[in-house]
Specification:
4 strands; about 200 residues; Glutathione S-transferase Yfyf (Class Pi), Chain A, domain 2; globular
């Protein structure tokens, strides 16, 4: 299989961390896509993903799967012998999905919007609204405070073990640095959690 990605982008990193935790990195060929040059806008790429985003996974039969969590779900269901990251029991699956969605909607997406609307990185193909980006940045900072409180008595975000929720939150915290949003010194619980995740081999991919 092939995975079309931009290595520095947070969504592909989420997929790589997921694959690394399950020992699946060698299953795929990773192909770099230059977003700033618009390689995701070519007819060939749009045929793989009409949303024009990264990453996209192309299977050997030509089937293409876009969206980070859809790709992760494919690996979770296809390699049952590997450690599970999306839950074993109905309760675990529900809790992990809850947290994945919370991180996605209230943390990851606002971080992305802050970047797109304040950095000018995609100003040639979108109408950046600086005030909207700045407001999204304030939302990101609020979610970090929420996470710090949540992690006061927990090593991981949910289910008392490492899951996709940790991957998604960790990569978001790391990505937020590009818009100068960092863990505040007083957020000691969030910092300890971040350091634990960063020490995992999968965080180096």
């Amino acid at each position: 299989m092939k995975i079309y990605e931009t290595k520095t982008a947070p969504n592909p990193r989420r997929v790589r961390m997921f694959m690394a935790e399950k020992g699946l990195l060698e299953k795929a060929e990773f192909i770099e896509i230059d977003l700033q040059k618009g390689e995701n806008l070519t007819p060939e790429y749009v045929a793989r993903n009409p949303m024009k985003k990264v990453p996209v996974m192309e299977l050997e039969d030509g089937t293409c799967i876009a969206e980070t969590m859809a790709i992760c779900r494919y690996f979770e269901e296809s390699y049952l012998q590997a450690p599970t990251l999306l839950g074993d029991t109905p309760l675990e699956k529900a809790l992990i999905e809850q947290w994945v969605r919370w991180v996605e909607f209230y943390f990851f997406m606002p971080t992305g919007m802050c970047f797109q609307h304040t950095s000018g990185y995609f100003k040639d193909r979108m109408n950046p609204i600086k005030e909207w980006g700045e407001d999204c940045g304030r939302g990101v900072a609020k979610f970090m405070k929420f996470l710090d409180g949540h992690l006061a008595d927990k090593e991981y975000i949910c289910c008392d073990r490492f899951t996709a929720a940790d991957i998604n939150a960790f990569t978001t915290v790391a990505f937020a640095r590009v818009v100068d949003i960092r863990i505040l010194p007083e957020y000691t619980h969030l910092q300890s959690w971040y350091d634990r995740i960063k020490a995992r081999p999968s965080a180096q991919v």
